[in-house]
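Record 1 of the preview.
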Amino acid sequence: MDFNLYSHFWPQFEQRADEELLSTETGVVFLYRDLDAMSARFARFLREVGIATGDRVSVQVEKSPQCLALYLACLRAGLVFHPLNMGYKKNELEYFLNDAEPAAVICDAANESEMRKIANSAGVSQLFTLNADGSGSLTAGSGKTAARFDTVRRDRDDLAALLYSSGTTGLPKGIMLSHSNLLRNTEALVNAWGFSSDDRLLHALPIFHVHGLFVAIGCVLLSGASMRWLASYNAKKAVEFLPECTVMMGVPTYYTRLLAEKSFTADIARNVRVFISGSAPLLRETFFEFESRTGHRILERYGMTETNMNTSNPLSGERKPGTVGPQLPGVEVRITDDDGGILPPGEIGNIQVRGPNVFVGYWKLPEKTAEDFTTDGFFRTGDNGFVDEDGYVSIVGRARDMVISGGLNVYPKEIELFIDDLPGVRESAVIGVPHADFGEAVVAVVVPENVGEVSESAIIAACKAELADFKVPKRVVFVDQLPRNTMSKVQKNVLRETYRNLLDT
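->
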C-alpha cells in the first residue's frame, strides 16, 4: 500500500478539478486543479534543485494558498515538511535549523537577509522566498516547470512532517510524524465528524500547527470539501463568512471573541452543522454561553503534536462540557498511576495513548523516545485526567506544566532558562494564569539578585527581543524566594494559585 498522504488526497483533486477548494477573504478563488498544478510545480522544482526524498524543508512564511501548495508539494515529493511559527526569532531559528538539518529553507522575502545568515551558519545552502501574496523566488523558479508530478510512494513509517515541541527540562524536541500517522488520524476524523464534499470549513487557524495544518486541511482534502480561507483569525470576518460555512474549527479564544461580537447571533450560525474546539481547554462558561446564544454545543476534542487527535466528543450524541469525549476509533486511552497500574473510571492519573496516530519518535533522540513510551507501546502524554463511566475523558492538569496561550504551546523551561541568564536575575519560575481572551497567559515570577536591580519592563523587553511574542510574559512578579517542597522542587501549583487573579484587572 502507498501511504503517501497526497496519494489519498489525489482522488478528490482528480474528481473535483474544476470545483472550488478555497476562497480567500478578498474573494480570490482557487480550484482543486489550481492547487494540484501549483504543488506539482513546487514539487518538481524542489527535486530539480537537488532536494532528495527524506530531506527536510524548513518553512517560515505567512499563511497563504501558496504555502498550502508548498506543504502538498513536500508530501508529493517525499520531502519532510518542517513548519516554523513566524514569531520565532534569531536564536530560536538557529536552533531549529541546526537540529533539523534541512536541505532547504523557505522564508518571507522580508526576512531573507537574516535567514540567509542563519541558514549559512547551519550549513544550509538552498534558500528560497515565498511571500503572503504568493510571490517570491520559489514561485518564480517553479513557474517554468511542468505542472505534472508523479507522487513518490511512501511506506508506513516514512516521515511526512517534523514539528518541534519542548519538554520541561531542555531544548525543543523534533516530533517525527509519518504519512501513516497523518492518514489514519485524518480518516478517523472525517468519519467521526461527518465530513463530506458538501462541507465548507471556515479556516482561520495558522498552518504551522497540527490543528490548522493536519486536522483542518486534512479533513477538507480527504472529503472533497471547500474552505473560506482567512489569513488570520478576526471575529468580525468570522461573523461575515460563517453564514456560508458548515464547519468551524478554532481554539477557545476564537469562541470567546465571537461571543464578544454583538452581531454574532443564532442566525449567523444557521448553516453551521458543527463548531469544533481544541488546542486548549474550553471553559464550561464558554460552552454554555455559546449554546445559549446559538443553540450549538461546541464539540471539544483532545490532541497533541505527538499524537494528532486522541479523543473527541461525538458528532451525534452527548457532548459533555468539561470533557474531551471518548477515544477515537483505533486509538486506545488509559489512565495509570505513577507505577503504571491501570486506574478504574473516575480516578485521576496519567493519560497514556496508543494507536496509529501516535508519532514515530523524537528526531535524533532515541533514548528520549524510549523514555516516553511504555514497554507495551503507550505514549506517556504528560497530561493528568480521568475517564468517566461512559468513557469520556477529562483533563485536569498537565504534569509537565505546559502553558497553552491562545491555543499555542508555551514551555516554561525554555523561558526560564532565558530569563535566568539576564543580568540581575537569580532565578525564575514561569507559569500560566487565567486570561479572559487567551485562556492562559504567561507570567514570570522572578527572584532578583538584589532588590531593584532589574525591572519588569526590562525583562519583558529582553524577552520580546529574543522570543516569539506568544512566549513573552504578560507580567513579571518579583519575590524574595520561590516556594519549594521538601525535595526543593518549585511548587508551581502554589504560584498558580497565588497569582491566578493577577490579570483580572
